[in-house]
Amino acid sequence: MNRKSQRCTGIVLLLIALITNTVSSADSDKSTYSAVVQQGQALYQANCIFCHQADAIGKAGFAPSLTNPELLSLATDKFFMGTIRDGRFGTGMPPFAHLGRKQLKEIVAYLRSFEILPNRSNEVDSQPNAYGDPRLGQFWFEQICATCHGVKGDGYLAGGTGTAIGQRGFLEKVSDGFIRTTIKEGRSNTRMRGFQGADGLANLTDREIDDIVVYIRTLAAR
User: Fold this and answer.
1) Which residues partner with 186 through β-bridges?
2) Which residue of 14, 23, 111, 177 is 20 to 30 Å from 189, comparing CA positions?
3) Is residue 199 predicted with pLDDT exceeding 60?
4) Which residues, 6 or more positions from 88, have their beta carbon under 8 angstroms from its beta carbon?
5) How many CB atoms neighbour CB 201 within 10 A?
6) Rounded distance, CA 64 to CA 12, Å?
7) Which class for 9: exposed (0-12), middle (13-18), buried (19 or more C-beta within 10 A)?
8) What pLDDT digit, counting tens, does each position of 63-108 carry?
9) Residues 198, 88: Cα–Cα separation, whole Å
10) Could you say which of 1.10.760.10, 3.10.310.10, 2.40.30.70, 3.40.50.2300 is the CATH number of the domain covering 18-112?
């Protein structure tokens, strides 16, 4: 074998080795992720399933779905981890402060395994803060939001089918972009419909939606 052939053979062997290592690394990453998801599922079943039901689909008027496509698309891992750790004061969601950071990440990984939409959380959270008139926001809130979320945003405790969006535990963890986008687009497979566009329950303008966001922020102080 001449030198040219030897060089070609060496290059081919090097490429094969690189491809093999890359495939092995990818397989290892998949295996590690699968193990994390399984650990998260076990933790979910031990701590969360009683309220949020199997596969975290939730139960209307009792506990929200944690695997709703739009929620998983809009919410950050920090949002999920903080909510699980701190709970929601004023609701039936207790804190799970006994769980460590690793365990919280595993539960979130399990929830993320249900994702079917692109993750837009960074894009949504980078939206500008809402500026509007809380008096007008109160009008719209009482007309179209209070029916499900309660006049004070107390959610299930007020007998509504919607979550407690007026509680500090929620408002301290979400951006205005998160609230704004949820109002606009709603959440599929839930009673939360969008409120903008031809298919919305009400075709609210961007300004009217910001008025609502500003008003909802005032509920935490009440």
Assistant:
1) 193
2) 177
3) yes
4) 164, 167, 169, 170
5) 12
6) 55
7) exposed
8) 999 999 999 999 999 999 999 999 998 888 999 999 999 999 999 9
9) 34
10) 1.10.760.10
What is the DSSP code string of 152-177?
TS-GGGGT-SS--TTSHHHHTT--HH
Residue located via tokens 């079943």? 45
- Amino acid identity of 191? R
**Within 10 Å of residue 96's Cβ, how many Cβ atoms?**
17
| Token duo for residue 188 | 């599929």
Can you tell me the mean pLDDT for 27-49? Answer: 88
What six digits make up the tokens of 23? Answer: 């495939």
Query: pLDDT digits over 103-160, tens only?
Result: 999 999 999 999 999 999 999 999 999 999 999 999 999 999 999 999 999 999 888 8
Q: Which two tokens stand for residue 53?
A: 């039901």
CATH fold of 121-219 reads: Cytochrome Bc1 Complex; Chain D, domain 2 (1.10.760)
